[in-house]
Write a structure and sequence with these properties.
Chain lengths: ~260, ~400, ~290, ~325
């Protein structure tokens, strides 16, 4: 494992994985949910994570995001060991995530949601003596992000009045507000209509090429188009890792997973 | 929404009342009654309130053509609320004198304010030693007792009665420690030995069982306690239930067998020794007359709380008569109190000009069964007990 | 002292007796919290009212046993009225509001008791059959206190079987685990809430009656017991039946022994214990998993 | 920025004007009450920062009130410090206590936070109750007020001291208003609304909670210092949990999450207490004066009524009414 300072913004050399989860094992009680899973993501890679319900996708996600400390194994972010770091530290190291179930500030407006994320991203959250309104850089970047993601129409709408699809978009917008190196997306199209799914797909595809993506997705078609590589999890184990084509053609995957669709 | 309107009306009325209350007749002498009408000592406050009213009924509600108006304020049994209440009496109601105060915490809290305002205060219960000692004030007179005064002579007396060892128990607060320390001093000086002591937390002790086990283990000749009110009842009952009654003599500051609680302790209290400035069984015409009157009015025995409040009313009226109803010269009123001397239900008493504390008899009483009831019978009298100045330089 | 077996026996029985009293109080509070997600701060008031109703029953009927039956029923009735008049209409509002209403009731209850029964302390006599003492392992111990322990154990066993064997028990167990699931099963949750709430009130009233002959009855007796009960619930883990049992036992014992072994700290022992438990287990000893 | 609160300036202005009018025409007693209101308003506003903004419902805020009061007492009576220095020391002591305790208490949340802060408050209470150097349960007396003779004022005059406390309350309001309007305030609100999201966004949540706890504690200590100067006396019951409960009631009936609401709650509570326990008040409205000794009963009913009729407190009710009026 290289210990170069690859975590510095601007993405490290291509031979250092920007995200490296090594031999992650975790149990809940007697249930083995993640069994020696290893993931390596190169900078700018778009990586898909699939598997049936209970395959341990979300657990692995939470381990990478820092919500759960694994029983064994390690997580490195840009060469830095973050296995024991809290989620907020990882976020500050450039790891952002969306949630499977919308996890927003529902009684605040879109603008306020994005400004909160912006305040953290601009590292001004601790400023207690200067009015928030006067931190123009924060609000400006919130607005430009909204524009970039097509949320400018609803900037001053309270989140709980938004449609589900728009809330889902905001979910990702909040993560993007941090200007992360790595973005973890947990089922970005879950519960969406076909139109909303298409819009979401377009939005993800339009993300900057330098951004590393790890996406859990149920909709195979979404992943096959988006991902450079895919990891198939099954009962906590890695069943297969490869390109979308390899996964699509794999007999095992067909019988175990695609067949179930 | 009707509720809102009612609330608005209540608030408006509240503000209005604040502006109108002070406008009262000039000629009346106003006496502030500062008692806990609510809170933990609410019952005692009511007891003293009734006795003060009775006192002014008996000794006059008029002095030199000036009527006497009582203005009442609630201390809630809390120091800060008590301080707010005394300010209210002095500033808002503009009273000429203040009478009352049950708890020593409230007295400690109001002391500086009362002293600074130069308003005479007649304390009807709270027994903090330092209020008529180190922190004494020319404006604060006490008709009840000081904690030390009640138990000082009890130590030597108990030792003289043949009790060689004692276990001390009181709640862990200033009054508790004052009582125990005073008893210990006298008891040890007369050859007694303290074999153990326990100070349960005030207000948080639900059960004396744990402490009784401790007493049992220490095996003293007597256990000397200071508990009053609910805890006194509880202690006596648990004492009997744990089978201690026949093994160890229970004794204490006399609230243990006070008229207020002794009947509720019932047979469990029989044999208990206490020292106090008043017991209903004092055999004097003054006491019989007072008890008769109190029983007629309230259907129960008058207590030491009632007596102190009643005597306070008498002291105030006598002093005001001496000044010819003049309340402008407050110092003259206090001075007049020093000259007042009378025999009340509890016996002869006067105010000690050295400390402003009362000089009075202290009685030792033992509870005995009387028919199907119980009562404390006087066994010994310490006459005219007077506190040393304790650092007071009046 | 600790080497004196007599001291240990008496002290342990004292601890058990307090534990049982706390159990009667905390079990209702905890289950109501588990099912309805609100803490009834007027629970101590119900306990106090139970003691006062016992006082009145003894005055009228001259029998402790009548009081033991009537007073808890009276308290349950008060609880039922309170539920019907206030709580039922607040079901859909935030639990915080319900808690606040019960907070207001503490003040109302305190003064109401003073108005009806006066502010002076009272007691009721120990029933003749239980008066006196028995010898336990060579130590004299009050019979009535043994009765409290026995009563607590009886209630504990009855509740255990009630929960395991009855339909209401099944609903309660399920409701503590996952309220939505119970509702989804089409069970009349409302009715179950009501019954559990009344049962909790009944138990609080029962605790008030049984403690009346040992402790004195006075306005304000509700506060100290309320805090202690809340501590039991929190230490055990709100909503957990096992937690209420273990919490009562731990707090009862620590309080009883702590007062004598560490008198200097008597006032803080329990608080320190609770703080320590919460720092190690932020959800109490037996946390109830918050099912999604 | 976060949360729209269009009425806070008018209501704050109304409170300032009301205080000014009451002060100008007031007698001795009025000034005493005004000082009391101002001090409790400071305490309530500091608690509101925790309860209303950061969502940390504390039932131990009186710990800082007591700590500030006792620190002032100790510095002036034992060390003979000037009152101004003692006040600074009191704020520092309360902040230090909040920092040490805060490290522990912020680790739990919800009802557990309520209980652990209750434990904190009771432990502080127990300490002062037993501390013989501070006079145990009888407390300490002889605390002076600030010496203002160099500007020709006498702070022992209730009129001067009440003006001082009112200015202090206004200053605390302005300070806290700045804080809640800052990015830090926005973060507190965000943590309150959705802690896990804030954490995922990279915010070190515990540090923010701790900062809020320390700030609230420091201001609570300031209120404590003022009450010590006001009464000239401190006693352990300043730290008793019912004081924390009363301040919490002020915040709730006034309206959580709006500083003027908390101040309004303090005004209402202190006035109600004084009037409901005053026999002349009951006589004035034609009811038996004995009700004065059952004022807690009435207070409890009023509190329940406010919770039922105005769940967001008086200020919250005002906001909703105003919004409805504006819409129609």
């Amino acid at each position: 494992m290289s210990t170069t300072t690859a975590h510095a913004r601007g993405h490290g050399s291509t031979d250092t994985p920007i995200l490296h989860a090594e031999a992650i094992t975790h149990t809940f009680g007697s249930l083995l949910v993640t069994d020696s899973v290893t993931l390596e993501l190169a900078p700018g890679e778009r990586h898909g994570l699939i598997g049936p319900n209970g395959a341990g996708k979300t657990t692995l996600f939470n381990i990478i995001a820092g919500e759960i400390v694994p029983d064994s194994g390690s997580v490195h972010l840009g060469g830095v060991d973050v296995t024991r770091l809290k989620p907020d530290r990882r976020a500050r190291l450039g790891l952002a995530r969306s949630f499977q179930h919308n996890n927003l500030f529902t009684d605040l407006t879109v603008r306020e949601n994005l400004s909160i994320a912006g305040a953290i991203a601009h590292r001004v959250g601790h400023v207690a003596w200067r009015a928030f309104a006067r931190h123009r850089e924060v609000h400006a970047s919130a607005e430009s992000l909204a524009v970039a993601l097509g949320l400018e129409e609803v900037l001053d709408t309270v989140v709980r009045h938004l449609s589900y699809g728009t809330q889902r978009q905001l979910e990702i917008a909040l993560a993007l507000a941090l200007d992360p190196m790595i973005l973890l997306l947990d089922e970005p199209t879950a519960g969406m209509s076909p139109e909303e799914t298409a819009a979401m797909k377009a939005m993800i595809a339009a993300l900057p090429a330098s951004l590393t993506l790890l996406v859990i997705e149920h909709d195979m078609e979404v992943l096959f188009d988006l991902a450079d590589r895919i990891t198939v999890l099954d009962y906590g184990k890695v069943l297969l890792q490869g390109t979308p084509r390899e996964v699509r053609d794999s007999d095992v995957v067909r019988s175990r997973y695609l067949g179930m669709q | 929404m009707n509720g809102k309107r009612i609330m608005a009306a209540a608030l408006a009325a509240a503000l209005l009342a604040g502006t109108t209350a002070a406008a009262n007749a000039q000629s009346d002498i106003k006496i502030g009654v500062l008692l806990p009408y609510s809170g933990v000592f609410g019952g005692l406050g009511k007891d003293q309130d009734a006795a003060i009213e009775m006192g002014f009924d008996d000794f006059g509600r008029e002095v030199a053509d000036r009527g006497i108006t009582l203005v009442k304020a609630d201390t809630e049994s809390k120091p800060n609320a008590g301080l707010a209440a005394v300010k209210k009496l002095i500033l808002r109601d503009k009273v000429d004198l203040v009478v009352g105060i049950i708890s020593s915490g409230v007295l400690a809290a109001v002391r500086d304010y009362v002293h600074g305002s130069e308003t005479p205060l007649i304390v009807t219960n709270a027994g903090n030693v330092d209020i008529t000692g180190e922190r004494c004030s020319p404006w604060i007179v006490r008709t009840s007792f000081s904690n030390a005064q009640i138990v000082r002579d009890m130590g030597p007396w108990m030792a003289g009665e043949g009790y060689g060892t004692a276990f001390l128990m009181a709640f862990d607060y200033a009054a508790g420690h004052q009582m125990m320390d005073t008893f210990r001093e006298g008891f040890e000086a007369s050859g007694g030995r303290i074999v153990g002591e326990a100070y349960p937390p005030l207000g948080e002790t639900k059960d004396f069982g744990p402490y009784l086990a401790q007493v049992k283990a220490a095996d003293p000749d007597t256990v000397f306690v200071f508990f009053a009110g609910g805890p006194a009842i509880k202690f006596a009952k648990e004492w009997a239930a744990f089978g201690m009654k026949d093994e160890v003599q229970l004794s204490g500051a006399g609230w243990l067998n006070s008229a207020l609680y002794v009947k509720k302790q019932g047979a469990d209290a029989v044999g208990t020794l206490g020292a106090l400035n008043y017991y209903p069984s004092i055999d004097t015409p003054e006491n019989h007359a007072w008890q008769e009157k109190f029983r007629a009015a309230h259907g129960r025995d008058g207590s030491e709380f009632g007596v102190a409040a009643y005597d306070s009313a008498r002291l105030i009226v006598s002093a005001l008569e001496a000044t010819g109803g003049n309340t402008d010269d407050k110092a003259a009123i206090v001075k007049a109190m020093h000259a007042v001397e009378f025999t009340g239900p509890r016996g002869p008493l006067r105010i000690d000009p050295m400390t402003n504390n009362v000089i009075q008899n202290i009685y030792v009483a033992q509870v005995e069964a009387r028919g199907d009831s119980v009562a404390a019978a006087i066994r010994h009298t310490f006459p005219a007990v007077q506190d040393p100045p304790n650092g007071c330089t009046l | 002292m600790l080497l004196d077996p007599g001291f240990l026996i008496v002290q342990t029985l004292n601890g058990l007796q307090l534990s049982m009293l706390l159990f009667l109080l905390s079990i209702g509070l905890s289950v109501v919290f588990g099912m309805m997600n609100f803490i009834n701060l007027a629970h101590g008031t119900l306990y106090m009212v139970g003691a006062y109703l016992a006082l009145s029953s003894v005055r009228w009927f001259d029998s402790y046993w009548v009081a033991l039956v009537l007073a808890p029923l009276g308290v349950a009735l008060i609880g039922a009225v309170f539920y019907a008049v206030l709580l039922r209409h607040m079901q859909r509002q935030s639990p915080m509001r319900q808690v606040l209403v019960t907070f207001g009731l503490i003040f109302v209850g305190f003064d109401a008791v003073r108005m009806v029964w006066g502010a002076l302390p009272h007691t009721i006599p120990i029933p003749a059959a239980l008066d006196g003492s028995v010898t336990v392992f060579g130590e004299i111990y009050p019979t009535y206190r043994l009765f409290i322990i026995a009563l607590g154990v009886t209630v504990l066993i009855a509740l255990h079987f009630g929960l395991e064997r009855t339909r209401l028990g099944a609903v309660v167990r399920a409701g503590v685990d996952d309220r939505r699931m119970v509702a989804a099963l089409g069970i009349d949750v409302e009715r179950a809430f009501f019954l559990v709430f009344c049962l909790g009130c009944w138990l609080a009233g029962l605790a008030g009656v049984v403690s009346a002959p040992v402790f004195s009855i006075f306005p304000g007796m509700d506060m100290s017991i309320l805090i202690l009960t809340l501590i039991v619930v929190v230490v055990g883990g709100p909503g957990s039946l096992k937690g209420a049992v273990v919490g009562s036992f731990v707090i009862g014992m620590v309080d009883t022994y702590g007062q004598v072994l560490a008198p200097e700290l008597a006032r803080v022992t329990i608080y320190a214990l609770m703080a320590a438990v919460l720092l190690v287990r932020p959800q109490g000893l037996f946390p109830v998993s918050q099912a999604h | 920025m976060i949360g729209r609160d269009p009425l806070h300036l008018p209501v704050a202005a109304a409170l300032v004007i009301a205080a000014g009018v009451a002060w100008y025409g007031g007698d001795f007693f009025r000034h005493e009450v005004l000082a009391e209101i101002a001090i409790y308003a400071i305490l309530a506003m500091s608690l509101d920062l925790l309860v209303g903004y950061a969502g940390l419902v504390s039932l131990g805020h009186a710990a800082f009130f007591a700590a500030g009061a006792y620190a002032t007492a100790a510095c002036t009576v034992f060390f003979g410090w000037p009152v101004s220095a003692a006040t600074v020391a009191a704020v520092g002591c309360a902040a230090a206590l909040a920092a040490v305790a805060g490290v522990f208490v912020i680790r739990v949340s919800g009802v557990f936070f309520i209980m652990i802060t209750l434990a904190l408050g009771q432990m502080v209470y127990a300490y002062f109750f037993k501390a013989s150097e501070f006079g145990k349960d009888d407390g300490m007396a002889g605390i002076p007020r600030p010496d203002l003779s160099m500007i020709g004022l006498d702070a022992t005059d209730p009129q001067v001291f009440s003006a001082l406390t009112l200015i202090a309350a206004f200053g605390v309001w302005a300070l806290l208003r700045t804080v809640v309007g800052s990015p830090f305030g926005a973060m507190l609100v965000a943590i309150h609304r959705n802690e896990s999201r804030v954490r995922a966004l990279g915010c070190p949540v515990p540090r923010y909670k701790l900062a809020a706890f320390v700030l609230a504690g420091a201001i609570g200590g300031f209120a404590g210092s003022l009450i010590a100067q006001h009464s000239g006396f401190v006693s352990p019951d300043l730290g008793f949990w019912t004081v924390s409960g009363e301040v919490l009631i002020m915040v709730i009936i006034g309206g959580m999450g709006s500083l003027v609401g908390a101040a309004l709650g303090a005004v209402v509570m202190v006035l109600l207490r004084h009037e409901l326990s005053h026999r002349a008040f009951w006589e004035a409205i034609g009811l038996p004066a004995d009700l004065a000794s059952y004022w807690q009963f009435v207070m409890g009913l009023i509190f329940i009524a406010i919770v039922l009729l105005a769940g967001d407190g008086l200020y919250g009710r005002l906001l909703t009414t105003w919004r409805r009026l504006r819409r129609s």
